[in-house]
Design a protein that fits this description.
- With 488 residues, the chain is an all-alpha fold.
- Strands 1-2 form a two-stranded antiparallel ribbon.
- Helix 1 runs antiparallel to helix 2 and helix 5 packs antiparallel against helix 9.
Length: 488
């Protein structure tokens, strides 16, 4: 028996079993409520399984998976985000009587399995399988809105084509890496002056990752796909897939400096991503498309911390991921609050005018989430962006810091423009939303708001228990005696 097949972080088999149970339940008899309940139980059990594993960790290079504090932290964010997205979708799926919606919870759990597999990967095989599982589930989720079949089908087809191209580039790079090293260990192949294949392999893998991250210049698909998808699916793409890919990027290059031949490429990509995402957001009149462009810019901010290893790097990355996830999920939860009671979503930002007069609670929470993304107190995003800037100062990344400052100023303008629209005079047109009994969505919005506000006021007291130390290098697996990794 192959010994390295015996080690599995517990969330992976739990999500796999949950997926099979959902398939069996759908094949037996369709029931949206039962499928939603099974998905909810699966995600909650997987959350409880973080930190546990099946089997024994193997010596260096023999395991397909690694389980350290970095993997556990990002898996925690992914599972909590998926749980939030399931709650956003709950009432809408239960009220949809026009067609069966059992497949939605199944695809959501399957996509979560792919994302979680990526963050635990110590080998190219589970990483690539996770990428493809996530991509396949997203194709179905994007096209799951029956009321906008044309837009959803177009968005799904665009994602299918571009995701296939990026996966082909990624797989070609993995093949070159294996050809040059003879190993599938998830780390860059050592480069030499006489052989350019390792450098080409690393660049191709990086290009594939940048496609998935929607970093500039591989970004143009994201606004169209998120706009055509249902709001919860757009949130899944903006949060869960980004966390999974970025976590894998940090795992791939470890805790040290990136190879020197990548410094110029990464600097250009980071600057273009920050400025390009923010300038694109300035042109948007639709809130979901604006959030898509904003997520591109936030990828650039995260890449600054990734590109600036040092004492502040781990804290900056972990805090920024938590702040971005909570703020973005909060905004999409508020969008879903209107989607639950309206046949169609608000088409333009001006449709939200006067929301402070008609729905003051939702308007206040939406403003807090936007201010957090802009990096303004009291939101947690202020300290997150400050930590990212501190990493750049520590490594004297002058150009990247200039891009961060310029991008933040641009972002401040369009975020505050939305708040200004919300505060429009009462006699101007505004969204008319009926009172809806959706306690799960109301609870989710309240919890996310508390995370954003309390995390912004007491960041040091709120996050020290979950902030991991710098992620372990790819060739440094956890010790069998590690107390935080109990075995079943």
């Amino acid at each position: 028996m192959i010994t390295h097949d015996l080690f599995l972080p517990l969330p992976l088999p739990l999500l796999s079993v949950g997926t099979m149970l959902l398939l069996t339940a759908i094949a037996w008899r369709r029931s949206t409520t039962r499928s939603l309940t099974l998905a909810l139980v699966t995600l909650i059990l997987s959350l409880g399984g973080i930190g546990y594993h099946v089997g024994t960790p193997q010596p260096e290079g023999l395991s397909l998976f690694v389980q350290d504090r970095w993997a556990n932290y990002t898996a925690l964010l992914i599972l909590l985000s998926s749980l939030s997205i399931l709650l956003m979708s709950w009432r809408d799926l239960e009220q949809d009587k026009t067609h069966p919606t059992d497949e939605y919870p199944l695809l959501l759990v399957l996509g979560t399995l792919g994302a979680t597999s990526m963050v635990f990967s110590a080998n190219y095989l589970p990483f690539f399988l996770g990428v493809e599982i996530l991509a396949l589930s997203l194709m179905g989720l994007v096209a799951s809105r029956s009321s906008r079949l044309t837009e959803a089908s177009e968005a799904s087809m665009k994602y299918l084509i571009l995701s296939g191209i990026s996966s082909a580039i990624l797989l070609f790079g993995i093949g070159l890496a294996y050809a040059s090293t003879g190993s599938l260990l998830f780390s860059p192949p050592p480069s030499g002056n006489a052989n350019a294949i390792p450098a080409i392999a690393t660049i191709m893998i990086l290009v594939g990752v940048f496609f998935k991250l929607s970093a500039v210049p591989f970004h143009m698909w994201l606004p169209d796909v998120m706009d055509g998808a249902p709001p919860p699916v757009a949130a899944f793409m903006a949060v869960v897939s980004k966390i999974a890919i970025f976590s894998s990027l940090v795992r791939y290059f470890g805790t040290g400096d990136t190879p020197e031949y990548l410094h110029g490429i990464l600097s250009v990509v980071i600057i273009l991503t920050i400025l390009g995402g923010n300038f694109l957001a300035l042109r948007q009149t639709n809130l979901i498309r604006l959030m898509a462009c904003s997520s591109i810019a936030h990828v650039g901010y995260l890449l600054i911390a990734f590109f600036s290893p040092g004492q502040l790097r781990s804290e900056a990355i972990t805090l920024y991921l938590a702040a971005y996830a909570a703020s973005t999920l909060g905004i999409f939860a508020i969008i879903c609050a209107f989607a639950l009671t309206e046949n169609s979503l608000p088409n333009t930002i001006t449709d939200w005018r006067g929301l402070f007069y008609t729905r003051p609670f939702l308007a206040t929470t939406l403003s807090l989430m936007l201010l957090s993304l802009a990096g303004i107190p009291p939101g947690i995003g202020f300290f997150a962006k400050f930590e990212v800037a501190a990493t750049g100062v520590e490594r004297q990344q002058t150009l990247l810091l200039a891009a961060l400052v310029i991008g933040s100023i641009i972002g401040l303008y369009y975020y505050l423009s939305i708040v200004r629209v919300l505060m429009g005079t009462q006699d101007t047109p505004s969204l008319q939303v009926k009172k809806s009994q959706s306690p799960e969505l109301t609870t989710l919005i309240v919890v996310l708001t508390l995370i954003v506000v309390v995390g912004g006021i007491f960041p040091a007291r709120m996050l020290p228990q979950v902030l991991p130390s710098p992620p372990l290098p790819q060739n440094e697996l956890i010790s069998i005696q590690e107390p935080m990794q109990p075995s079943l």
